[in-house]
Write a structure and sequence with these properties.
Chain lengths: ~375, ~290, ~750
């Protein structure tokens, strides 16, 4: 098992329009941790993972596995295993040969290879499939072979590049749980790339949000969800996404409030950082998650919503509308249960929110005001 | 070996990159050297190139080209080169047209229908192409003699068709197989007969493939030499390759004229070849045709 | 069938008809008074002279329509035969006396009118005799040709000439430079020296050909040439072009050159106008004693086809061509040693040292025998001389081998066989076939299948018919020819005798050079080496070109495909030129690297290597393009997975890339193998089978039997059938193996 330490990693693909994909990544991954790299498509997640694997060579910066500098090492010198998004099974080899391939290259004795395959195959339900070719397998089966190929190797570091994105929704949930169990059983260090926030939140010990080649925030999933450091992180995690409203801060009766047409809410002190004195009359971006608002009596809450559309999901409803007037800032609120039916278009609703759940971001930098 | 054989990239050392370029440049030089020799011979008029390493003529001259193109029959004054150019063009065009016209419906049937005798027919067709060409020369010669076609363009077209038709059938079959059958099925659901579906849907869709196939059939005839040299006897019925061969006779070969003529013959088809080449390989390997 | 469909079919037929009109043959000639067609194989000055004569003749016959055709020498005889038999040939043609016999046998030449020969004394008597067979004269003597000694000023000024060939050898020992350029290994050029030792190539006395290149004189002549070569007097591996080059260069410069050359009148046409030289008969080998070094004499005659378009006009033209006036033009302009005696009274001819030199040489020359044996004798004799000069064989062994070869080529065709067993067999097969058909026709299952196939047949019938006519019929005829033997005009059925002869190596040891098995061995080696190199080079380049990051990829790709785009006969001829021992670029490059020039076509290994180099050059782009295509179907991630799994580069190639390429490449490799197996152009044009026919492959060997060795069509066809069967069985086997893998 290994810890991974990445410093100031930069990567540019050579080519006509060479643009920098990784712009100085710093990352610490603890031994045995399950780290998820999440971010929108094209942000450089795969590039970072492939650089860790040794499939790409960085322009500058270092990668250490434990104390060993592996920045320039070949992939096969790194003791890693990787599960590709496309699975990358060897099409001309049977399942058994696919599993054995890496071990054979390492000159593992034959009986040891057989033993490991016999051990792994039933765990993944591959017992019947060992003599088939990849072309004769379903998508889910192929995915399990790809996993098995990594597991039999017993590497000190597992790398996953969106391994579930080609599965249907039900299967995805199932395998997600299996992967988490696998981590618990093996205790190996795992790095997992996904653009799916559900996978990210459920799997991660450490969640790393990437955007445009930089790490926006790293931390436990709760931490990142509850205290997003940037507007981007705040907007990226959470379903439906966080509402953002431009507002003005003012100090009223010793309390800081954020105010804009249709909204007037109190802000908790710890959201303000230590530059409190400067907040008087400052414009900021207010962020409120749909999940964090509660219905209040008419005019009683700080948020006045003119309803345009209600989406009912049965166990909850999403209320879409505009703040204050008809053409006010769009806003979404979540309401418990199937209460949707009673709210029609054009109706005015009032919501309240805890000061602790009001996020503030700098208008220009997008950083949280406390950060 | 493992130094050069690298399929993944983007993280390789510059030294290795340089090595790859060295290897490729060497291969390119080897590929071009003989061609450059021909070019240099063509451009040097009346000089000997003996013992030279670099294919660069000492004095550039277009004399060889002028003389080759300007070949006239001394007695009658006809422009022999023009005549031979016309022969080559007519024979090659006719070969391509005959080949494609005969092959297209047959290739379509092979691609779309299962029918009794299909496998055996294809096998027979392929097998005939393994019979060495020089060996069919004797019977062909005798047959053409009987038909009084020995020294004619028509006779040559018939002979070329013996390779062009099987070639076109195999090429076009794989082209039709590559066209999704849905298109024709949609047409037939819309009320077209099978033949109309072939004519209106499959044929237009196969147009690029047909163009490429006829191009290759054309080039095959244009570049053919042994058969033409054996079957033609009059200077005015020669195709260009046969005329060229005459420049490299027994004594004091006129390599300059040969080279100039070779360039005139090759350059246009080389250009065509580049247009057609990337489309041809799949059909070639699916079929199996003699060269 | 809808209206539009019918219209389209009509258009197709219209197109076909148009094409047919476009390529229609030229109209056939018939009896046409006032018309004259003349054929010749002259080039350069001789052609010029003939053209002047034609102009004069035209001026004298303004109403006549006269056409002249220059036919390349290589194909002259066969074309004459074909054309005259179909009334498309010439009325008058020029050819050498050696061919008269076979022309007469085939009825394409008619005896000369007595009227034209009233004054036999007007012509050179030796020439006239050479053109007379069985008491009839078949051509009017036009000119005499033979070898003579060219001598260059200033080393040989004025009338200076060596007294013997030995003198030139001694001179070479002194000056360390070549002194005599000639094609030492060519039997025709060796003949004068052989004659000088009292030998003969062929004994044609008494109507039976006896191969006479044997015993003391042959050995002595070979030993003398070998000695002269070792002394540096004569060049190794000389070709006609090299002789021209050496004599043009002379001994005055750094390049190899010689001041004397043995050649025929044709050499003069290749020499620069400024060169000062004269011609004398070849001197004896040794200064004292010995027989004269008499070259072979060829008499060129004007011949007449049996049914000229306008007999009177043809006769008039013949008389004109050999008239004194015309002979003087031919001598002055065409540099011919004319056979019309009166012409030599012209002072300009008498004083011409070139013409008189050749005339003296011709007076001494031996008319070339006209029997079929002579034609068969050249190849064995030339090969024997080559082997001796390359020190492959001792003179005695080489002579022995030559004799075997001669007997082999001239052996009588196998005896006639009773064709009835074969006919019976064919009849039986036809019966079985018919029975089979009947059974199919009865079987309801099959009938249903055929009925279901009817729509498809509408599309294929015309193609089937045409393929049957164009491809299958010639093929079957070709295969059938393999059961026949004898001269082309009188083939007779011999059963499987041709096959027996081929497979038993005609009585020689099974692996002796030139036997079917030896040639098969070379062919297999040729195929394996070529395909392996095609694959290795094509694949290596494709792998390099498919690197994800590569500058100039497109440029490399386009340039590397060039060898595929060049017509193969052009590249083959270009490569042959590059492998020329003295003039070629390959030796020039090697010379710069300090390697001695290599006589590429004198040893099997180097000649084979030259062929392979040419063919590999021709063929690697195909494999490269195929591999490039196949590589795109291998996902990059699979290779990366292997890399992560710990594979080195070589392991990635050998365990992933190659196995994945395999199924895609297999058909191309089989195709490439078939191409290479039958790659006639390269072998024929580059090495031409040199040395000694040992680089010949099966196809080119078959071609030789058909077109250069006495037209043994049956034998050649048997070769072709064997090649076909070999390929068929092998490719089927390969395919089955590939499928079961
Ligand atoms: N081999 C390559 N060459 C050039 N650009 C690349 C290459 N691979 C990826 N990119 C670019 O780098 C950016 C990041 O890609 P990637 O790391 O695959 O993103 P993702 O976060 O979706 O996995 C994308 O804009 C992509 O187009
Ligand atoms: Mg990705």
């Amino acid at each position: 098992m290994a810890s991974v330490s990445i410093r100031a990693l930069r990567k540019t693909y050579p080519g006509a329009k060479s643009k920098t994909i990784l712009k100085g990544i710093d990352l610490e991954i603890a031994d045995g941790a399950f780290t998820v790299l999440v971010g929108p498509s094209g942000c450089g997640k795969s590039t970072l993972l492939r650089t860790i694997a040794g499939l790409e060579r960085p322009d500058s910066g270092t990668i250490h596995f434990d104390a060993r500098d592996v920045t320039l090492a070949e992939p096969r010198e790194r003791d890693i295993a990787m599960v590709f998004q496309s699975y990358a099974l060897y099409p001309h080899l049977t399942v058994r040969e696919n599993l054995a391939f890496g071990l054979e290259l390492r000159r593992t004795p034959r009986d040891e290879i057989a033993r490991r395959i016999d051990e792994v195959a039933p765990q993944l339900g591959l017992g019947e499939l060992l003599d088939r070719l990849p072309a004769q397998l379903s998508g889910g089966q192929r995915q399990r072979v790809a996993m098995g190929r990594a597991i039999v190797r017993r590497p000190s570091l597992f790398l996953f590049d969106e391994p579930l994105s080609n599965l249907d929704a039900a299967l995805r949930g199932e395998v997600r749980v299996q992967i988490r169990r696998l981590h618990e059983r093996l205790g190996a260090t795992m790095i997992y790339v996904t653009h799916d926030q559900v996978e990210a939140m459920t799997l991660a010990d450490q969640l790393v949000v990437l955007n445009g080649g930089v790490v926006e925030q790293a931390g436990t999933p709760t931490e990142v969800y509850e205290r997003p450091r940037t507007r981007f992180v705040a907007g990226f995690l959470g379903m439906p996404a966080m509402n953002f409203v431009e507002a003005r801060l003012s100090v009223i009766e010793g309390k800081v409030r954020a105010r804009a047409p249709g909204i007037d809410v109190a802000v908790a002190d710890d959201r303000l950082g230590d530059r409190e004195s400067t907040f008087g009359d400052r414009k900021v971006l207010v962020g409120v998650r749909p999940q964090d608002v509660r219905l209040a009596g008419a005019g009683a809450g700080g948020i006045d919503l003119r309803v345009e559309l209600v989406e009912g999901l049965g166990f909850e409803s999403h209320v879409h509308g505009a703040l204050g007037a008809r053409d006010g800032t769009p806003f979404v609120a979540r309401v418990e249960g199937a209460a949707a039916g009673s709210h029609g278009g054009g109706q005015q609703l009032s919501f309240e929110v805890d000061p602790d759940d009001v996020h503030l971001f700098d208008l220009d930098t997008g950083r949280a005001t406390w950060a | 070996m493992s130094q050069v054989l690298d399929e993944t990239g983007g993280r390789r050392r510059p030294a290795e990159e340089a090595l790859v370029h060295v290897a490729l440049v060497l291969a390119t030089i080897a590929a071009l050297y003989p061609v450059l020799w021909v070019v240099s011979l063509a451009l040097s008029h009346g000089e000997s190139s003996a013992g030279r390493v670099l294919p660069i003529p000492e004095h550039l001259s277009l004399g060889n080209f002028r003389e080759v193109v300007g070949t006239h029959d001394r007695a009658t004054g006809t422009w022999i080169f023009g005549r031979q150019l016309a022969n080559s063009l007519l024979v090659s065009l006719a070969t391509a047209a005959v080949g494609v016209a005969i092959a297209t419906p047959a290739a379509y049937a092979l691609a779309r229908f299962r029918f009794a005798g299909r496998e055996r027919g294809v096998f027979l067709l392929m097998a005939t192409q393994m019979f060495p060409g020089v060996a069919t020369l004797v019977p062909l010669y005798l047959i053409l003699e009987k038909l009084h076609l020995l020294d004619s363009r028509a006779g040559l077209v018939l002979v070329y068709a013996t390779t062009a038709v099987p070639f076109c059938i195999m090429q076009l079959r794989s082209a039709f197989e590559a066209i999704p059958v849905d298109l024709e099925e949609a047409a037939m659901v819309d009320g077209a007969s099978r033949f109309q579906a072939f004519l209106r849907v499959a044929l237009p869709a196969a147009r690029p493939a047909i163009a490429v196939t006829s191009l290759f059939a054309f080039m095959g005839a244009w570049n053919e030499f042994i058969l033409a040299a054996t079957l033609l006897s009059r200077e005015e019925s020669f195709t260009l390759p046969v005329a060229l061969q005459r420049y490299v006779g027994e004594h004091g070969a006129s390599w300059g004229h040969f080279a100039a003529g070779a360039l005139i013959v090759s350059v246009p088809v080389m250009a065509l070849f580049y247009v057609a080449q990337r489309h041809i390989v799949s059909g070639l390997t699916a079929g199996g045709v003699k060269g | 069938m809808g209206l539009s469909a019918r219209r389209a079919v009509a258009a197709l037929y219209a197109l076909a008809a148009m094409l047919a009109v476009l390529v229609l043959p030229w109209p056939v000639a018939a009896d046409e008074p006032g018309k004259l067609v003349v054929w010749h194989a002259y080039r350069g000055a001789e052609q010029e002279a003939l053209d002047r004569l034609i102009d004069r003749f035209r001026a004298a016959h303004p109403s006549a329509e006269i056409r002249v055709l220059a036919v390349p020498f290589d194909a002259y005889a066969s074309k004459l035969e074909a054309a005259i038999l179909h009334d498309q040939g010439p009325d008058v043609f020029f050819d050498a006396h050696e061919r008269l016999g076979s022309f007469r046998d085939k009825g394409i030449v008619a005896p000369i009118d007595d009227e034209l020969l009233r004054d036999r004394g007007a012509f050179d008597p030796v020439s006239l005799r050479a053109l007379t067979i069985d008491g009839k004269t078949w051509a009017l003597p036009v000119a005499r040709k033979c070898l003579a000694l060219y001598l260059r000023a200033p080393s040989w000024p004025g009338d200076a000439a060596p007294h013997s060939l030995d003198e030139l050898v001694v001179l070479a020992r002194k000056t360390h430079r070549p002194t005599l350029a000639y094609e030492a290994s060519n039997a025709y050029a060796h003949a004068p020296i052989l004659h000088g030792f009292g030998g003969r190539i062929l004994d044609a006395e008494g109507g039976r050909d006896r191969y006479a290149f044997a015993d003391g004189p042959a050995r002595d002549s070979l030993a003398w040439v070998l000695g002269a070569m070792e002394a540096g007097a004569i060049p190794e591996e000389a070709s006609g072009a090299l002789v021209t080059q050496m004599f043009t260069t002379g001994s005055g410069t750094d390049a190899i050159g010689a001041d004397a050359a043995i050649s025929g009148p044709w050499l003069a046409g290749e020499l620069p106008a400024t060169l000062v030289y004269h011609v004398v008969p070849i001197p004896p080998v040794h200064a004292a004693g010995g027989t004269p070094t008499r070259p072979y004499l060829t008499v060129e005659g004007a011949m007449r086809a049996p049914t000229p378009r306008d007999p009177a006009l043809a006769k008039e033209f013949l008389a004109f061509v050999v008239s004194t006036e015309a002979a003087i033009v031919r001598a002055k302009v065409g540099r011919q040693v004319v056979a019309t005696n009166a012409a030599w009274r012209d002072p300009a001819l008498r004083d011409d040292r070139f013409l008189t030199g050749f005339r003296r040489a011709a007076d001494d020359a031996i008319p070339m025998p006209t029997t079929p044996g002579m034609r068969a004798a050249w190849e064995p004799t030339t090969r024997a001389i080559q082997k001796v000069l390359r020190r492959d064989l001792s003179p005695a062994d080489a002579i022995e081998e030559a004799k075997h070869r001669f007997l082999d080529v001239t052996r009588p065709p196998p005896p006639r066989r009773d064709p009835r067993p074969m006919l019976l067999l064919l009849g039986l097969l036809a019966l079985i076939g018919a029975g089979q058909l009947l059974r199919v026709a009865r079987d309801p299952e099959q009938r249903r299948a055929i009925r279901a196939s009817l729509p498809a047949y509408a599309y294929v019938t015309h193609a089937v018919v045409i393929v049957l006519l164009l491809v299958v019929v010639p093929l079957v005829l070709g295969a059938a020819t393999s059961f026949f033997a004898g001269p082309p005009q009188q083939l007779h059925y011999v059963g499987l005798a041709n096959y027996f002869e081929i497979l038993s190596a005609r009585g020689a040891p099974l692996l002796s050079s030139g036997s079917f098995y030896a040639v098969l061995g070379v062919t297999v080696l040729w195929t394996v080496v070529n395909v392996t190199l095609h694959l290795a080079i094509g694949m290596a380049l494709a792998l390099l070109l498919s690197r994800p990051v590569l500058k100039l990829r497109g440029v490399y790709r386009v340039l590397l495909v060039v060898p595929w785009a060049v017509p193969s006969y052009v590249s083959a001829l270009a490569w042959k030129g590059m492998f020329h021992r003295q003039l070629g670029a390959v030796n020039a490059v090697l010379g710069h690297l300090g390697v001695e020039p290599i006589a590429w076509f004198s040893r099997f290994s180097t000649a084979f290597a030259a062929n392979v180099a040419t063919n590999v050059w021709l063929g690697f782009p195909f494999m490269m393009v195929v591999t490039l295509g196949a590589l795109t179907s291998i996902p990059r991630e699979v290779l990366e997975a292997a890399e992560v799994d710990g594979a080195t580069r070589w392991q990635r190639f050998s365990r992933i890339t190659f196995p994945l390429l395999r199924p895609t490449l297999a058909p191309s490799v089989v195709l490439g193998a078939v191409w290479t197996f039958n790659m006639f152009n390269v072998v024929f044009l580059v090495s031409g089978g040199e040395p000694d026919g040992r680089t010949e492959i099966l196809v080119s060997e078959a071609y030789r039997w058909a077109f250069t060795r006495q037209a043994q069509y049956g034998y050649a066809s048997a070769y072709a059938v064997l090649i076909f069967l070999l390929l068929l069985v092998t490719t089927r086997g390969l395919k089955r193996r590939e499928v079961t893998r």
